[in-house]
Amino acid sequence: MSFINNWLRPDIKAVNAYHAPPSTNMVKLDAMESPFPLSDELTGQYLTYLADAQLNRYPNASANELQQTLRKLMDIPDEFGVLLGNGSDELIQLLALACDAQDIVLSVEPSFVMYEMIAKFAHLNYQSIPLTNDFEIDAGAMQKAIETHNPKLIFIAYPNNPTGNVFNRTVIERIITSTKAMVVLDEAYYAYATDSFLADIAQYPNLVLLRTISKIGFAGLRLGLLIATQDTVSQLDKLRLPYNINTLTQVSANFLLQEKNTINANVSIILAERQTLFDELVKINFLKVHLSQANFILFKAPNANELFEFLKENSILIKNLSATKQLTDCLRVTIGTEEQNQKFINIVKSFYD
Ligand SMILES: *Cc1c(COP(=O)(O)O)cnc(C)c1O
Which of 120, 172, 307, 334 could covalently link to 29 via disulfide, CB atoms 3.0 to 4.6 Å apart? Predict the structure, then answer.
């Protein structure tokens, strides 16, 4: 028996580690990253700006300037508070840390896997309500779960990952008003969706929003934000490690997120490409393609495992979800550049020829 095997909590030993597959020399369409690198022109200016970073000093603990940059980028009203995290994953962890052991965390399934993993690591009791066949929230089952479990935290991704849809707004409003839980709407894909609950924070004191810059071009910077009432943010801020946003991230984001026009232009390209890819996939008779309000598309394919492997042999990496409950034979492809999407489509077509 190795040391760590004796030492470690059994529930952690039992967890399957979060798995990021090798992707060297692959067309990477598996992780909802933006396919657009920095332009050469911007890179030059960026490096000059970065040269002034004082790496011998600790980062600015409150990251004030970065807060202002993000407020401008996302049109966050001054009246709301903003809490920054090392990716929104860290903020999910911070919320779990704020709970008592055995508190109930409620979500839906299938959804973002980190809600469950983090809840379990923090000794919380995770419960999930299956989505309906068309990936909507089962409003009745959710209300019942709220009554029986009295959850402390409710996580809802809006749009949802991995299904790509936004849930019915009225159902979510009813959840918010019928629970004492903090309701966390995870808007990681806000840039690709037509609706948001940002303005609703003014109306619902128990509503908290998560956003990230990972899906709009900057996954490598690791920066997420929690948006809520000032009250909520100033209390939760006590749990944040003082220097959680490192200097390179602060300086980089301050410079790069000023480029709102470029960011929006790239989002527009992805939206147009999403439509093209959707239309192309729908034309393949064997597939069931789901509408998406995010930068990925979920589709059901006969022989999904074989198709996934065939794509991999042809240097295209997507996400295989076929072993996930309710997602038998489902694959998820991130929207890439026109060229990448075309290559993907051609290989899928040749698989079914
Ligand atoms: C990608 C994703 C995140 C993680 O964002 P990071 O800021 O990169 O940690 C959070 N929630 C959902 C629903 C996601 O899809």
Answer: 334
